Structure formats: C-alpha cells, structure tokens
Amino acid sequence: MRIMGIDPGLTRCGIAVIEGPKAGLPGSIGSPKPTFVAADVLRTHPNKDLEFRLAEMSAQLNEWVERYRPEILLVERVFAQHNVSTVMTTAQVAGLAMVAAASRGIPVGQHTPSEVKAAVTGYGDAPKEQVQHMVQRILALPKLSQPADAADALALAICHSWRQGSAVATDTSIQTTAQQRWAAAERAARRTGYRAGRGRMGKKSS
C-alpha cells in the first residue's frame, strides 16, 4: 500500500512516501516492514505575498500526488491555542493537500503529533531527534532524514501503516507488534486531549 505523509507548513512542508503491506490482507501481520520511496521538504519564500505562496505550495503538492499516486494521504493534525497566524497558514496548507488528494479520489486521514511519536518511538513526547533516528532504523535508511520535517512526514506514514495493523517490524529491538505501538499512541492522544484544555500544546512554524 502506497502511503503519503504530509507535515504541513507554508515555509517548510514535509512530504514523504512509503510502501506498506496492504491493510486487511490475510497474513498481513508479520509481513515486511514499510519501505522508503521518497521524502523531501517543499518550500515557499516568506517574503512573498500569501496568495502566491499558497499557489506555489499547491502546485508542488499536486506534482507529488500526481507523480507518486498514493493510495491514501495522511496529514498531521496540529493542535494549538496560540500564534493564530501560524495555525492558519498550517491549516491552509493541510487543506491544499486534502484537495489535491480528493480531486483524484484518494482518501485522506489525520493523526496528531503525539499519536505519531508514540507509534514510532513508543513515547508521545519524544523529541524530533529521536523520531529521526527511529525513522532511520525502521526504514533502514543510510542516514537521518533531513531536515526534520521530512522525517516527520515519514513518521506519519509509518504510523498509519502500523495503525492499520498491516505491518510489524521484523526487528524486535524496534517494537514488538503494531497493536502495541497503536495502544501507546492512543494513550498519548488521551493525554494530549487533556493538555489541550490547559493551553499547553506545542507550536508549529509556518
């Protein structure tokens, strides 16, 4: 199953594609780990007017979706109660990604940062460096994905692959089962929901 992950942002937008086993197929549990296809960071210049930046980002997103034809597209769901302008631009880019998928009949899903971190590292508050290292190990990459936005997009795609229960890492030093990863993600999501009510959520650069 080809999965595209998008870590939305207007100045830097992480985007990545992996191949994961087909969800729901007999014998899918215990199948090979997800494999790397592509990853990059899409950029727009902060000195340009918003409408031109959005147009540029839309063109780049559509190019990637058209080139790699994912079977599902995942967008990071970002919660924040401060820095409204940043949240707005992040939401706008997420919307562009959803439209790019919907216009081609590609389903869209969303996961929170805490869900993704817990699924990949086992810890919902893991730092970006730990996410990068785990993504490198899971996908057997020769080096860390740089910048971190690209690793975040890969982690998002990996998270969804494991949430579907369609992939279990064969390296038991990473994790033991997809279900255990997702159980950790669900616990992190519940903690995140509690923190959102206290205004302690993290911020994301546009």
UniProtKB/TrEMBL annotation:
GO cellular component, one term: cytoplasm
Keyword DNA-binding: yes
Residues reported in the UniProt entry to bind Mg(2+) 1: 7, 149
SUPFAM superfamilies in the cross-refs: Ribonuclease H-like
Cofactor(s), by name: Mg(2+)
Family, as annotated: Belongs to the RuvC family.
Complexes and interactors: Homodimer which binds Holliday junction (HJ) DNA. The HJ becomes 2-fold symmetrical on binding to RuvC with unstacked arms; it has a different conformation from HJ DNA in complex with RuvA. In the full resolvosome a probable DNA-RuvA(4)-RuvB(12)-RuvC(2) complex forms which resolves the HJ.
Name of the protein in its database record: Crossover junction endodeoxyribonuclease RuvC
